[in-house]
Design brief:
The structure is a homodimer of 397-residue chains.
Chain A lengths: L9 E2 L12 E4 L5 H11 L3 E6 L13 E2 L2 E2 H6 L3 E5 L5 H12 L3 E4 L5 H4 L4 H7 L4 E6 L14 H8 L19 H24 L4 E5 H6 L5 H8 L16 E5 L4 E5 L3 H10 L3 H5 L6 H6 L1 H12 L4 H11 L3 E3 L3 H5 L2 H5 L3 E3 L9 E3 L4 E2 L4 E2 L12 H8 L3
Parallel strand pairs in A: 1-16, 2-3, 2-7, 3-6, 7-8, 8-9
Antiparallel strand pairs in A: 4-5, 10-11, 11-12, 13-14
Helix pairs in contact in A: 1-7, 10-14
Chain lengths: 397, 397
């Protein structure tokens, strides 16, 4: 494929061809799941107006570390947004909020279910007064079912869903996935639900309510575990870094650090053994097929490990690359940031904030022809930074 | 909020009000990332036509375990799809494929970059002959950059991105997230890119190419790690189950099994200590604030662990629930499947396949008013099962 023909030329904000340009999102979100969803929509061109409480704003503004007085955590999911401070228990601010909604396509929140209704904005009322509005809520357990009103954090969703039960080493203390995938996966499903609802509205003219739960989203991310259990009675296990149905496909320790490799078929297994100078391992009957390698995975692990730990990782990476065996260093975040591939994809871009020099955020991984990739992101808003401008623009009084 | 007002009544396929109804997706995907993306689109109402090689079809049809002769793994991401067998190196089948494209909105694939172009279908040619077609490709590293043509599997993306470096216990062997989030996150971003491109096409009339990389998608899922490193110089660590900025927020071992709990503020910490009969722990100066609890997290862990391991998990779950402290069992997948909440949300639904009795798959976590939730999914297609019907419907000759 003539890949050069598909260029993702870098451009500063505003971007041309953004697929969600023209879409206005009112964001009541705090901390992670909803702000991540709206950050994702912003990176595709939506206008996101963050409505925050006048006292402290989004809770995550208080999360350390702070640089130049501003939270690094908050910055990571609130670039490219505007902020207006409104107290939804105060009449004048309620009027302003309602006026904002008349100009909005989407309202996003991640309060505990029932909170927005108690503030006087149940879905029925929102829908009656703003029939085109899409109301998107993300919560721990969703708006229905016996646990609907229970609080949840990422670790609760990871624990209840079974995700923690299939992550880590058998017999060792449990492991939480290091990123808060309980929130992030739910936020990404919410974003997909929102754009799908916008598409439907083009035909029907009508908005809808979207209800995404962190628990449900983790359940949807268990790969084949649910089907395997219900169809074949297996209960999936913790396997460290090992793949449940391919061997070898795991991490190995070299003289200095760890690598991963994946020999997905017999040919690659032979190449692997030759590349590490152990062709006799590939000739053993007990390692002849993927099925037999899986059945003897501990013995296989011992054979390969004994060799790999004699030389540093880069030695083996070079040898395996020459042999065409997929492999990689287990990198730190700072090593990843320095990768030429990550730079070429423009995946880490600076925030244009002199008060947080050098601070960068991930770019959208959705590269699209006709949509110029951003090369910076607008810094996260200070609390109520755009309040006056928004009041003028929308006549909020 | 009057939650009862928002009902997600169960219905069998076909569903009414599906947001992507009317959208036709041609799916050349194999194994996971692309099939997961199209499975997600199918659960929102898109019609997905799987084009498979006549010899063996999708590689994952061979993945064990098999029930009734059919792969459980394949079933987990290929429900609600049709299958037609076409050999894209054979002239008659190429003509059929091209005819299919004239009726399609989206073409999805996860070949190594360049493969489809070598088969005679570079993006430029697809776009020239089918200007409204959206061409969505997902690969390990994307179509650009020095690693574009390298192979990648889930474990490679998890290792290179830094995701593995922040998951697991410091000093212990590495851990791969038990589900293949390298593929799944990329697939979900691909689905979001596709629906966003469909939305843009409504205005412009023009299709586009979408290019999503597994590595990029993992980078976008590192939460605040990139911003923290670039702004504050921190390199995020492996923390087992601990939260980087809240304590206590982690797993604890009880007499029989593990639980997680999350005391996100001073009030909840006091409630926690009282609920486990250790109010004196909350009175200690070194545990007075979240910052001091974080600084003394090992000592705090020791104090709480000493008590929790004296009684079984259900004892503590009950006590903590009464006190309003968010907590949960670390459940297996089979325990999750039996949860009343999961049933109430209709999150696990059966495949209507007598040859795979009892087999179930996750439902979509996107609940939407006016869109009836499915209560079954159509079983995955046998290879070329819909070939004849599709040839008649689209005049494929």
């Amino acid at each position: 494929m003539p890949r050069q023909a598909l260029r993702f030329s870098g451009m500063s904000f505003p971007q041309s061809g953004a697929p969600l340009a023209g879409l206005t999102v009112i964001d009541l979100g705090r901390v992670l799941a909803a702000p991540f969803a709206t950050s994702t929509l912003a990176s595709l061109g939506a206008r996101v107006i963050k409505v925050e409480h006048p006292d402290r704003g989004d809770d995550s503004r208080a999360f350390g570390p702070h640089v130049g007085g501003h939270s690094v955590y908050f910055a990571s999911v609130n670039c490219d947004k505007e902020s207006i401070a409104l107290d939804l228990t105060c009449a004048a601010d309620r009027a302003a909020f309602e006026m904002l909604l008349t100009h909005a396509d989407v309202l996003v929140e991640n309060f505990r279910p029932g909170t927005l209704a108690r503030l006087g904005y149940p879905w029925e009322r929102l829908h009656a007064s703003h029939p085109r509005l899409i109301y998107a809520a993300v919560s721990g357990f969703g708006t229905t079912g016996p646990l609907a009103e229970n609080p949840a954090y990422d670790i609760i969703a990871q624990a209840l869903s079974g995700m923690m039960s299939i992550t880590g080493h058998a017999g060792a203390p449990p492991v939480r996935v290091g990123a808060s995938i309980g929130d992030l996966v739910a936020g990404l499903y919410l974003a997909l639900g929102i754009v799908s609802a916008v598409h439907r509205r083009t035909a029907t003219g009508e908005g809808c309510m979207i209800d995404v739960a962190m628990l449900d989203s983790q359940v949807a991310f268990l790969e084949a575990a649910i089907t395997a259990h219900t169809a074949a009675g297996t209960d999936p296990q913790q396997r460290g870094t090992r793949h449940p149905s391919i061997a070898p496909f795991q991490a190995f320790e070299c003289a200095d650090r760890w690598i991963v490799l994946a020999a997905g078929n017999d040919h690659l297994f032979h190449e692997l053994c030759a590349a590490i100078g152990r062709p006799e391992v590939a000739a053993e009957q007990r390692f002849a097929t993927n099925a037999s390698r899986l059945a003897n995975v501990e013995a296989l692990d011992a054979q390969i490990s004994a060799t790999l730990r004699t030389e540093p990782a880069q030695h083996w990476i070079a040898a395996l690359h020459r042999a065409g065996v997929p492999c990689a260093l287990i990198q730190t975040v700072s090593e990843m940031i320095r990768m030429e591939q990550v730079r070429a994809r423009n995946m880490i871009i600076p925030i244009d904030d002199p008060q947080m020099p050098g601070a960068s955020v991930p770019n959208t991984p959705i590269k699209m022809s006709g949509f110029d990739v951003a090369t910076t992101r607008r810094r996260p808003p200070r609390l109520d930074e755009h309040g006056d401008a928004l009041r003028r623009e929308f006549g909020l009084g």
